[in-house]
Amino acid sequence: FKVVNDGVRDLSKANDTGIVAGHDGGVWLLRPQRFFRLGDDQERTWAAGKKATVSDFEVAPDGTIWTIQTPNKEDVSTIESFDGEEWTTHHRVWDTRVLEVTPDGTAWAIWGDSMHEEDFGYLDEDGWQVLGELPRAKELLVAGPDDVWAIGWEANIFSRYLYRFVDGAWQRWITREGTEPTWQPADDPLANDTEWFDNVAVGPDGTFWGVAEFPNLLSLVRFDDSGWSRWHFRDADTLWPAAYRVCGSYSVSNTIGVAADGSVWTALMTRDPCDCDGGVGHFDGETWDRYLTGLCVEALDISADGSIWLLADSDVYVI
Predict the structure, then answer these.
(1) What is the CA radius of gyration of the chain?
(2) What is the 3-state secondary structure of 213-271?
(3) 79 near 111, Cβ under 8 Å?
(4) In terms of C-beta density within 10 A (0-12 exposed, 13-18 middle, 19 or more buried), how is residue 293 classed?
(5) What's CA 296's distance to the chain center, in Å?
(6) Bridge-partner residues for 93, per DSSP?
(7) Cα(209)–Cα(211) distance, rounded to whole angstroms?
(8) Which of 2, 197, 236, 291 has its CA 20 to 30 A from that of 78?
(9) Alpha carbon separation from 210 to 123, 154, 247 (Å, rounded)
(10) C-alpha pair distances (Å), 163 with each of 181, 207, 209, 250, 290
(11) Are 115 and 98 within 8 A, CB to CB?
(12) What is the 8-class DSSP label of residue 306?
């Protein structure tokens, strides 16, 4: 369904930059100068001011807003929280989605004074608890204390590698063949055949899905209670899960989500990096379903009731 009005405002063809299904049960729309919950007439402005870049937005069960914001024309971002009355600044960060709020309301993050010294931990009643370090992190995913993943870069900003926090230390994924992955300590030199990952997501049950990429080969990777699985995409004429691509000023990223049943929803694209009209696909490990054919999916999130919320061609949709 296309959502043309939320009972308060017209939503058609607005300048929306993101859509988030919060742990508070609400659906939130992000815009360049403000954000709001659908159905609520109150709109809030960003702590970093007008034209701030907001690279992450999370909502805890109690309604607390957590974001990463960068003031206009500045390079350094900060983790900010909003309790409904005022903003609180927590840490400086050096890259994008290194913030995660779990369904129990715990805020996890990676932060630091430089991209070479970044702490990783979570916030509790005693303050921020540091569990380790992961330099050059770009994305953090947490389903629970024993299901912690991250994406980081090593050689250059376009090579995005997969890490998992196991037994108090970060491990880097290496293998690109077979069902059982090979890992190495994150501090070890990068192996020549290390596969990189683009869009990644973790579901509430801990199921991990990621779009893995190696020259001339794209695949969809899953990890759940049954172990590791992989599906290759070689046919250039078929639609693929959206990988990280840059075409002019447009990029495809963070358009993947995992439902409560462990299945994956992902934007679809052809092999052409400038083609963004594949709509969205749903894959349960056996069967693909496709929706919003012909539209470019710009953002995607899944609510606790199983509804899929999307921004596509500047409109709001729900499945």
Answers:
(1) 19
(2) EECCEEEEEEEECCEEEEEEECCCCCCEECCCEEECCEEECCCEEECCCCCEEEEEECC
(3) yes
(4) exposed
(5) 17
(6) 77
(7) 7
(8) 197
(9) 27, 18, 21
(10) 12, 15, 13, 27, 30
(11) no
(12) S
Structure tokens at 112: 């630091």
d(CA 229, CA 212): 12
Structure tokens at 161: 């590698």
Q: What are phi and psi of 109, to 5 degrees?
A: -160, 165
Pairwise CA distance, residues 280 & 11, whole Å = 20
- pLDDT single digits (tens) 281-302: 999 999 999 999 999 898 999 9
Q: What's the token pair of residue 214?
A: 């190696």
What span, in angstroms and rounded, lies between the C-alpha atoms of 249 and 80? 27
pTM, two decimal places = 0.90
pLDDT tier, 177 (very low <50, low <70, confident <90, very high otherwise):
low
From 66, 57, 5, 61, select the one nearest 31 (Cα to Cα). Answer: 57
Give me the amino acid identity at 5.
Answer: N
Within the chain, residue ranges assigned H as helices are: none
The torsion angles phi and psi of 12, rounded to 5 degrees, stand at: -70, 130
Residue with tokens 């729900």: 318
Can you read off the two tokens belonging to residue 98?
A: 């290194």
Between CA 297 and CA 276 the distance in angstroms is 7
pLDDT digits (tens, 9 = 90+) for 146-171: 899 999 887 665 678 999 999 999 99
Please name the residue that has the structure tokens 């694209």: 269
If you search the block for the tokens 């990280």, which residue do you land on?
A: 244
